[in-house]
Amino acid sequence: MTDMSRLEVDAKIENLDRVNEFIADNIIDCPVKDAMQIELVVEEIFVNIAHYAYEGEEAGKAWINCEFDEETRILEIVFEDNGIPFNPLERKDPDVTASAEEREIGGLGIFLTKKLMDEVKYEYKDNCNILTVVKKL
Predict the structure, then answer these.
(1) Which of 3, 7, 61, 75 could form a disulfide with 22 if both were Cys (CB 3.0 to 4.6 A apart)?
(2) Where would I find the H helices in the chain?
């Protein structure tokens, strides 16, 4: 694999463009469909960190690690924050067959993430939420 690139930003919505640019700069010859899916996933995860990780506190930091292996065409993105511990993979998938009015609020972003990526895993280690997403391009 190539060297992993790392970005540190304040966990604020206004840094989303910077995060997306960072990811785009680390992917070589990515098909448009995959690029759009990756951008959606990055937005969902980063916005959730910005909105919920440091709830009630001054915005903390978010770290994004990105590794793209040109040979295997595997992209790995790791999101880290030291906010409130939260494993989004424990959340029950929303009933996408129900109407919007009948559906519970929340959970659609991580559901889409699990559907669009090839692998999604979470761990809480050293007071840090670590969410890893992997996509084969």
Answers:
(1) 7
(2) 16-25, 32-48, 108-116
The structural domains of the chain, ordered by start, are: 5-136 (3.30.565.10)
pLDDT digits (tens, 9 = 90+) for 34-43: 999 999 999 9
Q: Read out DSSP for 49-73? A: IIIIITTTS---EEEEEEEEETTTT
CB 33 within 8 A of CB 74: no
Q: Give the three-class secondary structure for 23.
A: helix
pLDDT band at 1 (very low <50, low <70, confident <90, very high): very low
119: which DSSP letter?
E
Q: DSSP character for 4?
A: P
